[in-house]
Amino acid sequence: xxxxxxxxxxxxxxxxxxxxxxxxxxxxxxxxxxxxxxxxxxxxxxxxxxxxxxxxxxxxxxxxxxxxxxxxxxxxxxxxxxxxxxxxxxxxxxxxxxxxxxxxxxxxxxxxxxxxxxxxxxxxxxxxxxxxxxxxxxxxxxxxxxxxxxxxxxxx
Length: 156
Prior knowledge:
The chain is elongated, with a radius of gyration of 19 Å. It is 61% helix and 0% strand. The protein has two domains: 1-76, no CATH class; 77-156, Leucine-rich Repeat Variant, CATH 1.25.10.10. By secondary structure, it is mainly alpha-helical. The termini are far apart. The protein has helices at 11-20, 26-33, 38-46, 52-58, 64-72, 78-84, 90-98, 104-110, 116-124, 130-136, 142-154. Helix 7 runs parallel beside helix 9.
C-alpha cells in the first residue's frame, strides 16, 4: 500500500513564493509590484533581485510594510534611502538609519529625527560622521548619548 500526500497551495501563496524567489524575472516582479495584495508587494520589495526601478516605485507604496521591505533590501540605493528617510513611519526611518548604503548626509538628517530609536540607530551606525556623533553625544536621550560616545571612543 502506498500513500501520497498532496499539498495544495492557493494561487496567492504560489505568487508570494515566486515574488521571493531569486529566479523571478523582472517582468514578473513588475507585475507583483502592481498587485493589490500588499503581501505580494512586500515580498517583491524584499527580494534582493528586484530591479532598482521597481524598488523606486515600491518606496512610494501606501503600505508601511512594503516601504520597510524596500529599506531592508540590500540593493536599495542611497537615493531611495534618502527618500525613505522622510517616511511618515519611524520604523521605516529606523531601518534606513541601519542600512549599509545610507549616505552620510542622510545619516545627518536622521540624527535629528524626533524618534529617539532612529537617533539611537544613527549613533550605532559605523558610517555616521564624527561631527554627527559628537552632536548625538549631547542628545536629550541618555541611551543615544551613551551609544554615540561609545562609537566616538571606538574611533580613537
